Fold each of these.
Amino acid sequence: MHIRFPTVLAVITTIIGLGSLVLNRIYSIQAFAAFSCLGLLSMLVMMLYAVPAVLSVLPLPKKTNAAPHEGGPINAFLKKIIYLNIKRRKWVLAAILLVSLVAVIGIARIHVETNPVGFFKKNTPISRHFEDISKQTSGSFPVNVVLNARTEGYFEDPAHLAQIEQLQTFLNTLDGVDKTVSLADFLKLVNYATNQYDPNAYALPEEPFEVRMLINSYKTMLGQEMFQRFMDPDMKHANILLRTHISGSRDFLALKQKISKYIKERFESHFEAQVTGFGIVISQSSQLLTKGLVKSLSLTLILIIGVMSLLFLSARVGFMAIIPNLFPIVISFGLMGWLGIELSVATSLIAGIAIGLAVDDTIHYLVRYNHEFKKDLDKDRALRDTIYGVGRPIIFTTLAISLGFSVLIFSHFNPTAVFGLLMVATMVASLAGALLILPSVMLQVELVTAWDLLRLMPTMGSISPGVAHELNQPLNAIKVGSEFLKMMAERKQTVPDDRMCLVATEISGQVDRASMIINRLTEPAENRGFQKEKVQLNDVIQKTLSIIEQQLLLDNIRVAPDLNPELPLIFGQANRLEQVMYNLLSNAADAIMAVQDETPGIKGRLIAIRSFIEQNRVKVSISDTGIGIPVALQDRIFEPFFTGKEAGKGAGLGLCISREVVKNHGGSIRVKSWEMQGSTFVLSFPKARETGEL
């Protein structure tokens, strides 16, 4: 089960990355995406069923006595990675940012280019033959300029044929154009031949009937098929053939723009024109390539961010987790820009493949990190054990994939060689993202998964830790009262009647409170909350103290309340606020109990409680002379499942629940703490009249 989930999720995200390529309008890329996704699904079936079956019949590997984290170059490398993530995190991220900025500058240098001749290296036969043809003939890549007149028989007029000749004169001046051929050229040739090769007859006819006569002669001499290559039977659509020696998509696009601009300026009122041909198709495919790349990459990022956000119940985690996956894409495209590699059909596949492979490493790291983090909620220890656990397979898979793609570098087919080079660079960058960027980024977020949420929900035959924590408060209060009576009995001391009455009343009240919590679990969800009412925080504090004060006295902890008698009311739920006060007082007592008698810098065993008005808000501060909270942990104390107590003595929900209760009352909670000098928690609430709930 530990392997199945990350494996399935990794395959799904890889399918998302490759499947997004189906948005590209180029059929070959769509086919590549479809068959790649099919291959991934078949691989998943093999990994889940065939591989375990084969492993079950193979002998088990021999056990070694070597410690898993000691010895060997891989472990030494991982140890340095851990050191960089924990001790030099800011420097590492700064270096990564600098490299990324250099790569972004390189991205700005990328040109979209598809050059079929450039696909082959210069010393290959195909490249040499194309160069010979370009030198000895009139070009290998044709371009067609199709003229569409608005009326039939338009080009029977000699003046209109002269427009074709005028346009050809301009086309012959364009860079890359070796020769142009049209019906006008053939009519001049036929006129020249039928007039006994008189040089003066190599010209267009001047009368319409002469045009028709030459066309009939042209059809007789060269055939109907040759005529239809350059003119339709209605004499409405004419074709001009351009023989060019250009082969790049950018050159074809520039040629098309020049032709279209010239025709629009000179002949827009006479006919429309379309520039087409093999070269133009290449240039248009490059435009589709760019648009398809943007669409597929955007879809991939959105879907993967969505998957990560759902998995870890946080959009912030989703966005943070995608950062290391963007790094290899930035590096690969930046490398393209600096090396002068054009964005072509082959290189456009890099982004989808890169993010699909990078997310695999991210998922394996996050799943393992979440598992390690929940052991003791120590992020540094979880990072260390996670890198030791998944670092080795990530390194080996990266090496294996890189070696596989590196074979392509030796191909004579340039797109294949470039694809292999960029994939090797992408895999190396992906390794850096998984081992350097991702661990550092994850230290800055609260990592809670959907499975952690399920642990907080009531289930059949059990209750969640959240409900258990709430129910534990009255039970602890009952325990405090009963232990006080037990201690007095063991000491054979007489309990004063008023004290006995007070303890009995509190025990009875806490039993009623526990009963109410249990009854609330059986009510419909919409009726489970407590009704808000006017609440005096001083009463809440005093009631909480009556529950816990006896235990504090037994632990030799003094309580110094300083309550403002004119404290305004707030709107809230008294029981929930008592739970908050109990949590804070209990934590303060634990912090004081953690202080050793010889601990320097700490004096007395005191909890000070103060209620006051500040900035027109009702506030309560609870200060202790406990051991304090380290600065590095102060941002994490409100995280779910985080606890500073010993293992088994805290679920890490007290402060998390308290913060949510305070926020539900429109308030806030903040902490000031100095290590070895105690802590102060300050609660702030709006007055009842400011809430509008009177």
Note: The two ends are 53 Å apart (CA to CA).
Amino acid sequence: MVDENDHDHILMEDKTLDLNSHISIPSYMEQCLDLKTGEIYYMNSTNGMRVKEDPRKLVSSKNADEFSGSVFSEEDSSYHESEESSSESSPSSGENQKEEDGLVVAGCKACFMYFMVPKFLEDCPKCASHLLHFGRSDHSASP
């Protein structure tokens, strides 16, 4: 006999989630999807902090220096430096920077996970093993 009030199954309506994948998040942040609730959250990979607010929206609504100093840890000085240098660069060099900082899909043979990572990242963010990059347009493809 099947219990109609079985709470182990969550009925998902036809929902569309906007992942904003055309706008990159800081390289130390991970965009995650809770498969049970269907909610998106963001995790800071340097300190493990989880937030539900999209960091891209927070940065656009506040001063980037204020945001990075108040919400994220001070240990991540590379983020502060990259924000300062990108705000001082010209629009044409900003476009080149976006191409260099683009995300690619990468897989880890050690922990069997797929990630969206910056093109330059070679090590798995979870276990630090070597990543296999998919769709990377440069000639330095991993063996």
Note: The chain has two domains: 1-101, 102-143.
Amino acid sequence: MTDNFEHNHRENERAATDPQIEQLLGSQWFAATDRKIASRATVTAIYARYSPRPDETEESIERQIEACRAYFDSIGAPQPTEARIYIDRMSSGTHPNRPAYKAMLQDLEAGGHTLMCAELPDRVTRDFAELHRVHKLYEHHGGGIHFAVQGRLQPAMLSVHGFLSMEQRRQLVLRTSAGRRMAAAEGRSVGKVAYGYRTVPGSRGILVVEPTEAEVVRRIFREYAQGASVRSIVIGLNHDGIPSAKGRAWSDAVLASRCGLLARTIYVGKVTFGATRCTRDPVTGRTTEHAVPRQDQIVNDRPELAVVDAATWAAAQQRLAQRGGVFKRSAASTPRMLVGRIFCPCGSRMHYVGLRGRYRLACSASTRAGTCARKRTIAAAVIEGDVLRLLRDEGLSGTSSPASRVPTRGRVREPYTKRRAQLERRMVEVEAQLDATMEPETYGLSAESLASLRERLESEIRGIASELETLTVQYTESDRGSRAAVDFSAVIATMLGRLPFEARDPNDRELIDTFRSAVDRIEIDLSAKDRSYRIRVSPAAWSGHTKTAGTIERLFDRPRLGFLGDPDRAAAALDAANRELFALADDDWEVVEHLFARRNWRRLEPRRLVDALLFHTWTKVPIICAPPRFGSAVTLNAAMTELVRSGTWANVISLLAEAESPVVAGIDATYFDHWKSEARK
């Protein structure tokens, strides 16, 4: 079938210059083929999606896939593998933040496929700009987008379909919003029913009080008006086994967010519609709530629905005003490397708490809902360092990186990438010049000169196309994973040098994105009573949407802060001491040996004592963390203090400097001057 497909491509290429052949070919076939794709083996993919609507079911997915398969058969293209059939269920086409959609584009960028087919343009996206972005992305990678109904659309028709899809969505939103406002003006409930109420069957939005839930609402308002914190109320509700409106555990946001229970006027008999509006972030797809001016809201007095008395309501609103209004999620501050990847064994996310620079990690279910028994917190810098070292030592560096263990498409060689980019850019330039020659006034040349120019440009286009056909991607085993492993090793080294790591500029954000692309999930178990903790890391595959199996796991002792909290620095200091990198040479010791002849320095060998002082001066390693070869930290500290206060250390530095010893070249001779104070014991 592939041979037939490539043969048809060659026939179509001839048809571009032969009108008779063009008339013989079907319009669908001619629109579907592409000379760029003919230069290499074609790998296809299918994308299917249905929206969260009652009329969209799994049968819609089956219909879309069958239509795309039939289309591939009609143009002689190979069928895609099961791994390249991308399906997004219950997903809106208004934003690109869809798992299968993103996986498909990642596979395209990795060179996984070249030709994608969907049933209709609005299955890919309902956003005009996004449709054009994806179209350009496929063209950039030498591929194309096809549709089972329309075939391959030209940019102009693509714009029309994109605009119609976006306009259809906008009109649907406007009609729905108008209907909701009309229902709200009539006093009917619109949207989700508030906790404490239920709708009368068959009444189309008429509410009545639910007695059991209404008593819970009174309890919440009463406790909050009496001074209880939101967190203590939430913990009490969860402890008593009272489910929230969704049947899950309560949280602080359920009570005190902008649309939270404590801010809803329905509990005093005022049904409000349109108090907030939502907008969707075009990049992340997340929705954000915004307050609506009071004059644009619809408020209906329904005293029969009041479940909280006016005095309790007023007291609760006064407390909300004193704490700065309703609970608002803080705007995204400095991005942190573990956000969105780190979890507690209970399944809840762990979040950063505390002041900037002294962040700690805590289970959100414990701090916000009280449903997790793991109430312990741990310094974020400790966990960040442990995770990075764990990935470096056992997972994602050197020859043991997941990229080298998972069968992936190897990366293209750099010369090929550069040359192909140069040719494609030149092709665009030459084609634009050729188009401009169709308007003689543009160049101001005679007909003969224009004909000569066109012939030269067409000859150059044929030459570029021929070179593009012979320029093939060469994959080798050594290409696989090696570049990814080296790049990620550099990322780990950079982040380890700046713990706790904070993104200060776009380059730092790129480092965090690289880290998150390599890690799916990090789980920290802080339940041990001996203050130890266990870290489990699930690495992500670095190609397509294939996931790696296996988890990296390690048990860590009680966390240690300061110098000892960095195992790399501690190991480097121990290695430097054992190799005597800062120790006196025999000639140096002969110069200063006479200074130690008449005194007992806490029974420590004088030469080793001098070596310890030199080691501490050069490395800044705290005395309490001094390597064992220098002796007990307490004894060493006392002996070093006597050596400095007696003036012997200053004499040692002076004599070695006169002898031009390299061990004191550039040393800070005043480093221990603060030890001369009697206040230091």
Note: The mean pLDDT is 73.
